[in-house]
Amino acid sequence: MASRARRPLPRRALLATGLLGALGLGASACGGVDGPGSGGSDGAGADGTAGGGGSAGVADGFPLALDNCAERLLLEAPPQRVVLLESSPVTLLEGIGVLDRVVARAGSFPAEYFTPELAARLEAIPALSEELDATGHLQINQEVVIAQQPDLVIGLPDGITREGLRGAGAEVLVPRTFCGQLPERASFEDLFAEIATYGRLFDRADEAEALTSALQERIEAVQAASGERTARTAAVLYPSVGGGPLYTYGSQSMATAQLEALGLVNAFGDTAERVFEISAEPLLAADPDVLIVLHQGETSGEEAIAEVTGAERLGGLRAVTAQAVLPLLFNVVEPASPLTVDGLEQIADWLDEQATI
Fold this sequence. Notes:
It is a single chain. By secondary structure, the protein is of the alpha/beta class. The protein has helices spanning 11-16, 19-22, 90-95, 116-123, 142-146, 162-167, 188-201, 205-225, 254-261, 280-286, 301-309, 318-321, 338-356; strands spanning 64-68, 71-75, 82-84, 102-105, 152-154, 171-173, 233-239, 246-249, 265-266, 275-277, 290-295, 325-329. The strands form 3 sheets. Strands 7, 8, 9, 10, 11 and 12 form a 6-stranded mixed sheet that branches. The chain has a 4-stranded parallel sheet with strand order 4-3-5-6. A two-stranded antiparallel sheet has the order 1-2. Helix 3 (90-95) links the parallel strand 3 and strand 4 (102-105). Helix 7 packs antiparallel against helix 8 (205-225), helix 8 (205-225) runs parallel beside helix 13 and helix 9 (254-261) crosses helix 13. The longest helix is centred in the middle third of the chain and has 21 residues, at 205-225. The protein is globular and about 60 Å long. The chain starts with 10 loop residues before the first helix and ends with a helix. Residues 1-56 have low confidence and may be disordered.
């Protein structure tokens, strides 16, 4: 079996040893149906950026027009005041050297996602709300966001509208994974496209390429070891705590990209949806070898597993009886971000440990 020592250094170690500094990345430094890059008739290119060179005081490539979900973002210059309503982009913003532009945040930002240094930096950013509902959706008032005078808001929870924020001078960027019915099967190319988008938005194309290269190396190391594992089926579940619906993930989820890189088969990977509600019957019929149970907010991994295994007849699933159930924080699976490479490595390490039991 592959061991951790054979893989490139994980993200935490890379940050700790100053990789980002060596690359010139100083430490200071749900929706529509279309993804970015569809182009248009207003002079934007196929990558969604407006043509024309920069002038004095304006970065090259700006003004910039970028498709995001079914909307078009228009920015006169790289964003300087960012409000973060999603935790997943943190490591991407850090990776291209622009986390210092985040003036406020809202939602759940578990310290387990980050290095101690990065967690401390996040803690210093004012928090507008940490309230999540039973399904993990952020609860926040739009006026609280507008009061921060952002020029870019990342994330679009219920109660927040693009129109309302645009009227206050802010554009909204939604992680592409959450844009609805994407036209392709999820892969790590979605992650690389997301990094490239952030590189264009913040005028950090070189840093984005360097980040992509580092992540690609880690993904390839996991893929190289996948042939040493026995092919098995897996399902990724998200339970609503308190007896609500149970969800699983299909072909448009990064869960499928992770499982396929690991040599596993998503039991529901032929379903052309990102996430959908599932009942006991199809789960029992699939009877996967492995279960991955996602959780976030105040719900612990143990509580999430108990919610699944305590549901109607699910305690008899093969994965449950074999104790092949792994709890994972939500953002190491969804949406596409550098955290999903952390999640890929975490699942790989767990699978290798399971093989030795």
